[in-house]
């Protein structure tokens, strides 16, 4: 069995490469995006930097490997920055306009308030999902017990008795 390009006979990694190589590739793409945004859209970059702080903090403090906190916080933080980006686009795409937008405390309140709502979603949705699933399973259990009682009434106590192996 010939393994191409592998001297030690170990299995060659798939087409996508190792996780470290994928992260490095993502970092290069991210760096190119940031550099192009700074060069061609500096006013938008200024607003996006303010909106990017909460998801970055969430990314670094979240211990989960999937980083769901950063996703929830980032989605709401960037979504709340979108109206300000559109306002910047239509009112004059200048650095002065971006600084004026960022000098308004209400802008910061909206962006960071949305990030706080992302944290609330991150913490409260699992609790709500657990409560809902517990309620549904309790309802299903009650339905099954009622059906079991009806079967026991119809067929006698032999249906209610446990099987020999239990």
CA-to-CA gap between the ends?
A: 52 Å
The shape, in one word, is elongated
What is the string of helix and strand elements? HHHHH
The amount of helix comes to: over 70%
Please state the structural category.
mainly alpha
Low-pLDDT windows of residues:
none
Q: Please count the helical segments.
A: 5
Number of beta-strand segments: 0
Please state the average pLDDT score. Answer: 85
For the sheet with most strands, the description reads: none
Q: Determine Rg (CA atoms, Å).
A: 28 Å
The fraction of residues assigned to DSSP E strands is: under 5%
Question: What's the arrangement of secondary structure elements?
Answer:
Layout: H1 19-40, H2 42-61, H3 68-91, H4 95-102, H5 105-155
Please provide a brief summary of the model.
The protein has a domain at 43-123. 75% of the residues lie in helices and 0% in strands.
Keywords:
mainly alpha, 5 helices, elongated, 166 residues
Give an overview in words.
With 166 residues, this protein is mainly α. It has a domain at 43-123. The protein is built from 5 helices and no strands. The protein has helices at residues 19-40, 42-61, 68-91, 95-102, 105-155. The chain is elongated and about 85 Å long. The model has no long low-confidence stretch (mean pLDDT 85).
């Amino acid at each position: 069995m010939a393994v191409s390009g592998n001297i030690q006979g170990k299995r060659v990694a798939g087409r996508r490469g190792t996780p470290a190589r994928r992260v490095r590739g993502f970092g290069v793409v991210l760096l190119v995006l940031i550099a192009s945004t700074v060069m061609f859209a500096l006013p938008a970059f200024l607003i996006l930097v303010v909106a990017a702080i909460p998801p970055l903090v969430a990314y670094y403090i979240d211990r989960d490997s999937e980083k769901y906190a950063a996703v929830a916080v980032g989605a709401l933080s960037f979504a709340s920055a979108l109206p300000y980006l559109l306002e910047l686009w239509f009112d004059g795409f200048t650095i002065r306009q971006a600084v004026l937008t960022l000098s308004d405390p209400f802008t910061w309140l909206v962006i960071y308030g949305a990030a706080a709502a992302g944290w609330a979603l991150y913490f409260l949705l699992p609790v709500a999902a657990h409560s809902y699933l517990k309620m549904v399973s309790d309802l299903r259990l009650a339905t099954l017990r009622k059906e079991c009682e009806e079967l026991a009434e119809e067929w006698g106590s032999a249906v209610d008795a446990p099987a020999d192996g239990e």
